Amino acid sequence: MFYCVSTHLIFNSGEFNNIASPIISFLGFIGVIFSILLTLNQLKQQQSTSYFNYYKDLIDKIANENPQNNSDLSFSTSELLKFNHFAIDEYEKIENNTEYIHDLQTFRAGVSVRSEGKSYDSILGHVRFFRACLIILLRRYYSLIREIQNHKFLDNAHKDILFNHLYESQIGEYTSGCWLIDFEDDLKKMKENLYTGFVPKMKDELKFFNSDFYELFELIKKNPVLEKLRTGSYKH
Questions:
Q1: Which of 56, 158, 185, 203 has the least CB density, counted as fewest CB within 10 Å?
Q2: pLDDT tens across 192-214, in order?
Q3: Is 169 in contact with 111 (CB distance < 8 Å)?
Q4: In the chain, where the domains are located
Q5: Cα–Cα distance for residue pair 198/109, rounded to 1 Å
Q6: How much helix, strand and coil, in percent to the nearest 5, is found in the chain?
């Protein structure tokens, strides 16, 4: 009957337009939205790539800093990250110094002690200077991690790559050093007995390995990517 009554040949352009025009307009609108989203995504990727390159170059720059290319520095980044070697060497110089041991015990007992003018004071002066440079480096890492972590224009993939690069190139050595200090008995002893000086009412603050030193370590443990790298490195 469809063919006999020629229904298939009937075409009403008005009805067609009434039906097709909204559909075509809607599809066109979807196309425009898709194009806008695609453009925005490309711009976002370009922004993320630009910031990624900036932070990667910054990480590499920090890793390669030394007194030769920066006259304001007294120690290279590599030397500062080998803080355990430095601390061991300096501690060996004073652990058998009877005056230091006596003052350390007196200081811990709550008696006012000062290190100025003592036989070990020049050693502690060197320790204080090295530690000050080390803490500056560790705080730079702290700020860098926070900055990357909270960056609005870096995508998660770029953040993960940057954290991996930072860990593998630098802060992995820091976390390994922290782990050794708490694992080796001799280093545990050094950790408790190495002070940068003696000033009344500042016992914990004057330890070489005090809360300032571990501030970065605590931040790393709160970062999923860095914590996975940290804990994974101890399993191998």
A1: 185
A2: 999 998 887 666 788 999 999 99
A3: no
A4: 12-41, 48-235
A5: 12
A6: 75, 0, 25
